[in-house]
Amino acid sequence: MSIKPLLPLLLVACAAGAHAAAKPCDELKAEIAAKLDEKGVKNYEITAVENDKVGDAKVIGSCDGGTKKLTYVRK
């Protein structure tokens, strides 16, 4: 069996997955905060920043279609 007939299906599946992953920053930030709170993590800050403003911060996610990064800092 050739992979050529399956190629369009694979491309559509990949594109759909990438589109679904493009979450608004507030939504992704809330999801990550809920997971951290569930694990008992305290005194942290999650901030959405432009990609070129990340610096040395720890990046924990990408949002708004890849235009911003979520950074994590323990206080």
Please work out how many helical segments DSSP would assign: 2
- Low-pLDDT windows of residues: 14-20
Query: What is the global morphology?
Result: flat
Provide the helix percentage. Answer: 25-40%
Pfam families: DUF1161
Protein name: DUF1161 domain-containing protein
Signal peptide: 1-20
InterPro entries: DUF1161
Structural account:
The chain has one domain. Helix content is 37%, strand content 27%. It contains two helices and three strands, in the order H-H-E-E-E. The protein has a three-stranded antiparallel β-sheet with strand order 1-3-2, covered by helices on one side. The longest helix has 14 residues. It comes from Pelomonas cellulosilytica.
Which features characterize this protein?
alpha+beta; single chain; 3-stranded antiparallel β-sheet; 75 residues
Short description:
The chain is an alpha+beta fold and 75 residues long. The chain is 37% helix and 27% strand.
